[in-house]
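Schema walkthrough. Field components (list of strings):
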Amino acid sequence: MLEVKQLAASVNGNAILKGIDLQVNEGEVHAIMGPNGSGKSTLAQVLAGHEAYEVDPSSRVNFLGADLLELPAEERARAGLFLAFQYPVEIPGVTNAHFLRAAMNEIRVSRGMEELDAMDFEDLLREKMELINIDPGFAKRFVNFGFSGGEKKRNEILQLAVMEPRLAILDETDSGLDIDALRIVSDGVNKLRTPTRAFILVTHYQRLLSYIVPDFVHVLYKGRIVKSGGKDLALELEERGYDWLKEDAAELVEA
Amino acid sequence: MSAESTTTLQDDQHKARYLADLARVAPNSAPAWLRQMRAEALTQFRGAALPHTRIEEWRQTNIAPIIETPYESVLEPAPHGLRRADIAPLLYNEEGWTELVFVDGHFDEALSSRGPLPEGAHAGGLREAWHGAEAKIIRPHLGKYLQERNAYTALNSAFLLDGAFVHLPKNAAPGKPVHLLFLMSRHDHPAAAHPRSLIVLEPGSEAQVLVTFAAMDGGADYLNNAVEEIVLGNNARLTYVRVVEEQVQGHLLATTEVHQGRDSRMYSFAATLSGQIVRNQICVELAEENGESVVDGLYLNDGKRLVDNMLSVHHSQPQGTSRISCRGILDGESKSVFLGKVCVHPNAQKTDSRQLNKNLLLSDHASVETKPQLEIYADDVKCTHGATVGAPPQEVLFYFRSRGISEEAARGMLTCGFAGEVIEEIPIEAVRARLHRYVFEKYAPAKVR
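Field assembly_structure (string):
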């Protein structure tokens, strides 16, 4: 569903991604790990269409048959790509319910479906909130406004549940969460796993991967994927840290 | 009067039309004490400079289009042919409300409707009231609080033909709002009205007053030159909402003076939705201990319009609380002015005051001059003031877009949200609903309605 070939991107002339290859199929969960500053969040943002990054013209990203890099951010979302932000922004004055209904209806219209009216949407939202165990009071609160770190992350998962994307990228969703919040968020994600929906989990720690078990683990270092493996790779990283990979990578770069 | 207020030859030419109209005011239209007031105001008007941009308070507010237009002042209620159905969109038609309609400054009984009021309470035309038993209530208050005198407020007092009078006796609480609709009818030549309102809340009483400034569409330029005086007795409570819905060819100069007694509380909200040049001047004096005043506002500015909010609170006695919070949405080539002033007098210890003006910039060609000011002459006080001007941040727009919402729709939602937050504070549901709807229809993109 997602095919990334030689993805390179820079910001203000500084190369951050230096040729990423990645293939994600339906139903798979991929974890992207790596030390700080390796380009993990940049990868997530570039895939979502953030315009602060300059993508090298030779890069290729195919998403469900479309040339992803050609699409503006809103069309990527309508095509079924979702990014759960590391730092979700606060939007005072706009309620969650209003925001989500607008988002959902944009997506429905782009797929030739009828818009949901406020009543039908309310039912759907309530159902999704129950599914991922979120306080119904969230609906009337302004988007992320005055939310705790944990609440913001849960709100991202609620958005994921409502928008039903084909591919969800979770950027450091575990950061800043205590163990209870981490469990709630992970349970939510696990409930949203389906045979046709894929996930990319961007994370620094193995911790999240005990709750959401990945099919593949990739290690990103200095803008390249330096190692890929199964879920055991995450455990190995937890045990040994990133340093041994950095040495390997140095050899790799020198060779 | 300010030091710069020397009158000029040009001023004299611009005043000529008003002076001619003032000479036509029938001398027997008011009791002697009021004619005396008019005469004093006339002297002031003759001597006062018309506002110009070299006067500090008008530095950013150029009202030359108003000054240079020879408006004919409407001295008598003229046959306007309006029926209630014609003005229905401007009325609320809520159960139990008293809705008083003033056409060109004159009270119109036939267009008005009255809900139940507590015994001894009064809401009606000022002119009919000063001819009746209410004169003894009006006389000690009328003209007593008008501190911010300029040529136009003096002009209002010099005409003083009619307007609204609302009086609540001790501890009265009608429970339903009184709506005062000041409406300009359609004129084929430039016309001016000078409505005057007096609202007196005796100790312990509680009222909700809603004021709309509006006009019938079409016709010539007009000027609504309004003055309101509001008195809150000890422990009185007032919710006051002003909605400015003037026409594109209409100008409003509205000055409101508020005098608050001990333990009194006032919430005010001035919403400027339309009108070519609009100046909302609201001046509150917390004249006794422990008064509380909220002065909120919202201005929607676009085109080549000029909207000025001059909001001030004087803390004269200890333990007063004031909150000035005003938001603007700036589009087109519009110009907005916010002058906030909180003055804490030497005696006013333990004053708690906050002042904030936030502006959402939707166009690179719109501008705002914002000047929140503090003057503090007491030492044990807590005062803050601030102002912001900005467009929606790119990070916020990206968040919307990452959820499939176009940038245009995002801007619309953000704008509605920005206005909606202050509208939500208004304690009258029907007014909230009306303002939300107005903002929504103006800014929300069709798709998210």
